[in-house]
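Narrative of activities, Objective 1.

The group set out to show that a structural description can be obtained from nothing but a protein's sequence at a throughput compatible with the screening campaign. Below is one input-output pair from the validation batch, recorded exactly as produced.
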Amino acid sequence: MEWISVLAILIGPVAAVLVGRSLQDRKHKMDRKDLVFKNLMSTRKMSLHPDHVRALNMIDIEFASNRKEEVKVRDAWKRYSDHLSDEKFRLQDLDGWARKGDDLLCNLLEKLAQALGYPIQRSQIEKGSYSPQFYLDNDAESQILRRGLIRLVHGELALKVSPFTPDPEPVTTSTDLNDINGESD
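Output recorded for this entry:
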């Protein structure tokens, strides 16, 4: 009978550590899944955002179990990923391609919400986001600048250069600066 007590004294702390570690591992897995979902929700109107792309690419890793909900998440991600790669459709009908992409992303977010136990309706996913026009404009302008610079570097675009004649009298005092700025004493 004493050996049972000794065994319990030895095994008890080890079992507690193992159970604690298992619970901690499960929490870390849920936190990572939750982060994927939150990153996608917060960037759903900014599909080029690095956090959005990173979260999409983590789905196959973080939702890899054979649980029914996670299989649905991976299936929805596969459909969305296939759509994003459909260059022919994008070139033929950009507006239609974008609408279908929005629908597939909403479907993916809905499946993620269900798998994680969030009580979010599809209408909240579709209508409940905010993205300032500045972000959209900034992305569009960045693309225009990048494409123009690429065309310039490849010699497809010329850079207009015009002569510049500097002012012969340099500005030397703060009074001169005030005169230039239209300020007077």
